[in-house]
Write a structure and sequence with these properties.
By secondary structure, this protein is an alpha+beta fold. It is built from 20 helices and 23 strands. The chain folds into four domains: 262 residues, no CATH class; 126 residues, Gyrase A, domain 2; 106 residues, no CATH class; 60 residues, no CATH class. The termini are far apart.
């Protein structure tokens, strides 16, 4: 069978022209929690993550008709899973509103102000009036079955490389629950995160390569974090990646946890779509028309009753039934690779796992497998019972009676989708860079107006107040910092922590601008690190300027800055001038230096004696530490070399 990876080089070798030849398109949806005191539509505190459980609620979800009298396909799919949804409630962080037992409060003003500030930084056209909508969710992540959401602005832009990429919109909405477990037909959530304010930034599908996707994500992350008004840490920001190639359709990779994971995920999804299109063409060439796969099913439990294949043996011992599905014309298709290390049969396995809730792996067997899990005689009996020809493939699934019936239907449905190419779906991001089925891609039918909250006007006074306190966008600030020769890692730290950037600017106004690289390093590395520890105090710009002035004048060595700042940041530290004086630089002939040299020379390990270079380096490093940087590197090296030379001469 032909290999289906021909257009793909290793990711690092793919050029813009390669991606354009594939017709690659991609966009981002970035969700970012806002740093507010309260949740969006109630008065519960935001950001209180706990594992305390005061009560549990059990619910089942069912779909509702949209305003147009239609069911959303995602809602119908979730309904087929027949999930029991358990919510673990912490009384300190949840109320009756989240359980849909009380109406919503007015939208939190602090959240709205922050969201409007971000919208201005994205150069969006702001709406004059907010209209709250409900977005249907039947996966259980929101107990009400819907999420309240609104749009604040449309048609903005961000710089990516040398060009501008469009931003479709910025939305403000409620966050969902935290998932605890998802086993079989029971999924468990914690509600402490539920209802926290969340902004969603959506770009146009104008990102031309997976690396541009990552770069766009970094631009947006810097921009929102530069406000100092968003949450950081694990789970505070989540990315959804939309990918398509020519002939395919939009596929959403949901909940990508980090920006660095984006390029590999997008690359593998593009490869998957390309291979699915080749499979479609191969099926059409075999005369299998669109959505017209001929199939048959049987109960194969008795045929495989004596199998020694361990997963199937365990299933039979638990009383599960085994079903077999014939897919006409699919011989050799299921074993085709669609992503690195993953073949097409995985698509069937994932549908069975998610929709029929048959989660134990493996959950299917297929006749294209090179492994002989079943005996040849068993396969032949199954094929005869299904009246399968040599060009047909056979898929085996097992489970309880209801789950098995659902699983066999999903196998047939996925086979029919194969004749149409790439199904529109939402996929999970896996750690190895591949993706797995999560649900069908939602349609417009999931949205409908909220009847509990009236429209909310965005007044000019409110916009002017917010605009007056806005700093330039992060990418403009980054450009200014780079012009000052601030190291790249320090630029990122300063933009993510506005308080440190403010200290940098205030101090830079008091010293020579040539000190900017050293100043940024002190703030982004030393002061940031000190703030992680307890018992530290804030440093005034004047104190930091005094330290830099002493360094510029040669009164303090750069080697002593670590020790000097550690003392200066301690709560009991004296005024900056006294600390600077304590760490003043000394000459090599200072009275205290000879004592340091004798003391450190006596501590050189005896096993270094055979290697003069190692002995000298150890002694020089010890002198720097003993002097707390009051000797510089050159002085320490010279003193160590002279000491070792005298020892040799004396011997």
């Amino acid at each position: 069978m032909t290999s289906f990876q021909q257009p793909f080089k290793p990711l690092a070798q793919m050029t813009l022209q390669d991606w354009q030849a594939l017709g690659y398109k991609s966009g981002l949806e970035i969700h970012q929690q806002l740093l507010t005191r309260r949740k969006l539509f109630c008065r519960c505190p935001a950001g209180h993550y706990r594992n305390k459980t005061d009560a549990q609620i059990l619910r089942h979800m069912r779909p509702t008709l949209s305003e147009m009298g239609e069911y959303d396909p995602t809602a119908l799919m979730e309904f087929k899973t027949k999930k029991e949804i358990v919510y673990l409630l912490d009384g300190d962080s949840v109320c009756t509103y989240e359980m849909d037992d009380a109406p919503p409060f007015e939208m939190d003003d602090q959240a709205l102000d922050i969201a409007l500030e971000v919208a201005m930084l994205l150069k969006l056209n702001l709406v004059g009036e907010l209209h709250i909508a409900r977005k249907q969710y039947l996966d259980g992540s929101i107990p009400t079955g819907f999420q309240r959401t609104t749009i604040l602005g449309v048609d903005g832009s961000i710089p990516v490389g040398e060009r501008q990429v469009g931003v479709v919109q910025l939305g403000l909405e409620e966050d969902s629950c935290r998932i605890v477990s998802d086993i079989g037909h029971t999924v468990t959530f914690r509600t402490d995160r539920l209802g926290m304010p969340l902004i969603e930034t959506v770009t146009y599908p104008e990102l031309r390569t997976p690396y541009e996707l990552k770069e766009a994500g970094e631009v947006i992350r810097r921009l929102v974090r530069s406000t100092g008004k968003v949450r950081t840490g694990h789970g505070a920001a989540r990315q959804d990646v939309n990918v398509s190639i020519e002939g395919g359709t939009r596929v959403e990779i949901k909940g990508v946890p980090s920006l660095k994971a984006i390029p590999v995920l997008a690359y593998n999804e593009a490869m998957r779509q390309w291979n699915l299109l080749r499979i479609r063409d191969l099926l059409l060439s075999r005369g299998i028309t669109r959505n017209q796969v001929k199939s048959a099913t049987i109960d194969a439990t008795q045929i495989v009753a004596k199998t020694r294949y361990v997963p199937l043996r365990h299933a039979l011992d638990r009383g599960f039934r085994v079903g077999a599905v014939k897919l006409q014309g699919f011989d050799g298709i299921l074993s085709q690779q669609i992503m690195p290390g993953i073949n097409f049969a995985y698509e069937f396995s994932e549908r069975v796992r998610v929709i029929a809730c048959l989660m134990e792996q493996p959950n299917i067997l297929h006749s294209d497998s090179l492994e002989r899990e079943l005996t040849y005689a068993m396969w032949q009996r199954i094929r005869r019972s299904l009246k399968a020809d040599k060009d047909d493939a056979v898929v085996l699934v097992w489970g309880g009676e209801a789950d098995l019936a659902c699983a066999m239907k999903e196998v047939v449905l996925r086979a029919n989708e194969a004749t149409m190419g790439v199904p529109s779906e939402t996929r999970q991001a896996h750690k190895d860079g591949t993706t797995g089925f999560e649900r069908l891609l939602p349609g417009a039918g999931r949205m409908y107006p909220d009847t509990d909250l009236p429209p909310k006007a965005i007044t000019d006074d409110r916009l002017e107040r917010i605009r007056a306190g806005i700093e330039p966008p992060a990418y403009e600030q980054a450009r200014d910092l780079k012009e000052l020769c601030v190291p790249a890692d320090c630029v990122d730290t300063l933009l993510r922590q506005p308080a440190l950037l403010h200290l940098f600017r205030q101090t830079l106004d008091l010293v020579d601008r040539e000190m900017a690289p050293l100043l940024s390093t002190i703030i982004a590395q030393r002061i940031k690190g000190a703030r992680r520890r307890r018992n530290t105090r804030d440093l005034a710009p004047e104190s930091l300027a005094a330290v830099l002035a002493a360094v510029a004048a040669g009164k303090v060595n750069r080697e002593s800055l670590f020790y000097l700042l550690r003392e200066l940041l301690s709560p009991e530290a004296p005024e900056a001038a006294r600390v600077v004086e304590r760490f003043h630089a000394v000459d090599a002939d200072d009275a205290s230096v000879e004592g340091w040299v004798r003391e450190m020379a006596s501590l050189v390990p005896p096993w270094y004696s055979g290697d003069a270079g190692v002995r000298q380096a150890f002694l020089a490093g010890s002198l720097l530490k003993q002097s707390q940087g009051r000797l510089n590197h050159e002085q320490a090296q010279a003193l160590a070399k002279n000491r070792l030379y005298n020892e040799v001469c004396h011997d």
